[in-house]
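Can anyone check this?
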Amino acid sequence: MKFFLKALLATLVAVVIAGAIFLTNLICFRPWNLNLFYEKAFLEVIFNEPELLTSLGLVEQFGITSHNGKLNDASPAH
């Protein structure tokens, strides 16, 4: 039983480290996959434009509605 728990803990630690490396690479550096790059670019655009986020309705299903009262930045500087 003790060996099983050590193996389970080692596996869990390895999965957490691998996930941290994957997310760090995805957020800070160039993603490993082109599909991940496009998803990251899409999310950056979506979360910078609250009107588009509201029209797509992606986060309303989770109860997040704070962006509904905001408008896109239509200034020339943007």
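Reply from J.R.: I decoded it. DSSP finds three helices and no strands in the chain.
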